[in-house]
């Protein structure tokens, strides 16, 4: 009996020890598993936080300086390369030669990876480079004659930046190159594209034949951007730039150049002709060659800024000074009332624009929807200030004032339309 009890007790102790051992092993494995799970969770959280911080840092860098700071080295590369260029020359002879020239240009552009579509038809070529962030907003460069050479040099450098740095423009770029005197590019674009164009830059051969200083004309917002670019290019280390570009914008106010007959934000580049100077074609070509590098840099930097900026700003200084200068020339008593009304409306407009600029400055650049909305408001304002008639001629073009200065009845009609257009712009901003 004692043996049986001893055996059973020994067996019970054995089973109890085995159970404890198993439980300890299970507890140990569970603890190790829990620690592994905890470590994995902490490591994952750490990696996630680092990833979030890294993305936030990249985002801050991307949006710094109105979206231009992180590509400043590419912009400088662009200006340096454009400072070394020699411009491609186009033929100006028969229509057959022009068609051959057009095909030649179209084939050259089709081989470049920067373009996803190139259309060649008769005397013009349209090449499109899609935008990466705002593909439904368009920056257009239209060129003829010597302007084609500038456009092709710009395309060559932009394509180099694309292939070497994997760069893509923020907005879609459209290059429209035509041989002839008539710009048919606007008629080739759908109403959708026309309404989504943020800037239309024109380089017409006839306007580039002058031997004087640079001058431009266009819609008010785009003009202000051009003046900023003129200051930048003028300050580059080139004495030639100082001779071409006026340092204080007085030339632009004294010699008003007409706008294009377009209902979209635009600017047309030109060189003034010096008084009492008559140059033949060879002299004009030599004069242009002296100006082609700074002009090419100006075009390139302008297209870059219009394409890459998160949101545009309207510096109203030139607009304000120009309209005041024009109004101060009105001294006829019967025009004084409308003159005072225009002054008051312009003051309201400037006040509203100041508020808009404050909104733009306070906007978080990382909120793409907000920046796009503000850009659209500014572009709608620019279109409103163009105030085109049924023939797309701008009713607010101050160059028209000098043409009408001797015809009092037309002047009154012009000033009345000017007042209405500015009132419409004020109402647009107030809404």
UniProtKB/TrEMBL annotation:
It comes from the Eukaryota. PANTHER family: AMINOPEPTIDASE NAALADL1-LIKE (PTHR10404:SF74), N-ACETYLATED-ALPHA-LINKED ACIDIC DIPEPTIDASE (PTHR10404). This is N-acetylated-alpha-linked acidic dipeptidase-like protein. It comes from Vespula squamosa.
